[in-house]
Amino acid sequence: MPHKQHQELLSVLHECMEACNHCFDACLKEEDVKMMAECIRLDRECADMCSYLESAISRNSPFVAQLAKVCAEICEACGNECKKHDHEHCQKCAEACMKCAEACRNAAA
Amino acid sequence: MPHKQHQELLSVLHECMEACNHCFDACLKEEDVKMMAECIRLDRECADMCSYLESAISRNSPFVAQLAKVCAEICEACGNECKKHDHEHCQKCAEACMKCAEACRNAAA
Amino acid sequence: MPHKQHQELLSVLHECMEACNHCFDACLKEEDVKMMAECIRLDRECADMCSYLESAISRNSPFVAQLAKVCAEICEACGNECKKHDHEHCQKCAEACMKCAEACRNAAA
Amino acid sequence: MPHKQHQELLSVLHECMEACNHCFDACLKEEDVKMMAECIRLDRECADMCSYLESAISRNSPFVAQLAKVCAEICEACGNECKKHDHEHCQKCAEACMKCAEACRNAAA
């Protein structure tokens, strides 16, 4: 199974997708939604890209390295935004994003 | 975390997405690809729908039940096609699909 | 070309996807983001589902009717939320959603 | 409307997504499916990436340039594979892919 090589990356991407989508939902429920606008935007970007890359890896796409490079950049941007906010969902999301950014950079190399 | 209610469903969907995408890839490498044409088609349908539903659950979508109902039907169709083929990837995929179809039916109820 | 039967539906879905994604972006830039929270959430739901259905139709998916039924419901929910807001992007989005909901209901029948 | 800058790219991406998904469907119905295996694989890659980029542009994603760079590469690979086959759906798909690759390269620059 070719995609087994990427089993750990798949798992990290999945955690990041869940964390970002949960953060998206939780940000929309916060008192100060305006402060979270950039977080909401980047959560969606990051969740969608992680989900896309998961699928690409699973189907043994010939473009995993190139997609992982972009995914790393998106994860890092989302993680940097989330880090600014004290909400637990943001802090957890930042952690998942940074872990995923590193895994994606390795896959892109 | 609202999406924690669906944690087991998320995991079953993820396994099904991976099994279907792996089966898609493996079918395209088989000697007799023509025999696998319907399997290839349904693997993509099922992988994409499982992936979509994973994202929807993670973002606390208000439409999880309706999407899960359609996903159950797609999983069942894919599982029934895979069951016809002796390849290990098809048999494993059929199993993942049937398990996922049941989990989706429960989430749709 | 089997998917030509659905050429008008494809076009309506595409306009709705664009309108919802534009509304998502514009809502995040509004002064009162909190008031737009439900609109932001439903814009994403609707844009993603319209995009998914476009792809499904284009690949001649066997599940277009079932997906169109769910898409109609999501479009209607998004259109009803958008209608409440005076912003031009919301009003335009509401219109696109209602048109798309009707086209999807026809495709689902 | 920020995404209006990209209106032509959106239209080219949409045509490419439709051509690739139609080619995917038509290849699965050909007599010699085995010969079309790589075409089927790349049609899916290309359709999915074009669809992803359409959504990203519509929501004013900050990552359009990076995604367009990868999309250009995928379109080119798919176009080169399709060019090898005489089927009308492959020839039309090759043309749509090459046009889209160029538009994506411009957007990435």
Describe this structure in words.
Chains A, B, C, D: Pfam families: Csp. Chains A, B, C, D: This is Four-helix bundle copper-binding protein. Chains A, B, C, D: InterPro entries: Csp_YhjQ, YHJQ-like. Four copies of one chain form a homotetramer. Chain A has 109 residues and is mainly alpha-helical. The first copy, chain A, has one domain (2-108): Up-down Bundle (Substrate Binding Domain Of Dnak, Chain:A, Domain 2). Helix content of chain A is 78%, strand content 0%. Chains C and D meet through helix 1 and helix 2 of C and helix 1 and helix 2 of D.
Number of domains of chain A: 1
* CATH architect. name of chain A: Up-down Bundle
Derived structural class of chain A: mainly alpha
* Oligomeric state: homotetramer
- CATH class categorisation of chain A: Mainly Alpha
Shape of chain A: elongated
Number of helices of chain A: 4
The helical percent of chain A reads over 70%
The fraction of residues in strands of chain A falls at under 5%
The biggest sheet of chain A, with number of strands, parallel, antiparallel or mixed sense and barrel status, is: none
Uncertain runs of chain A: none
* Total beta strand runs of chain A: 0
Query: Looking at CATH, which topology of chain A would you report?
Result: Substrate Binding Domain Of Dnak, Chain:A, Domain 2
Order of helices and strands of chain A: HHHH
- Mean model confidence by pLDDT of chain A: 94
- Radius of gyration of chain A, rounded? 14 Å
Distance between the termini of chain A: 21 Å
The pair of chains with the biggest contact is: A-D, 20 and 20 residues
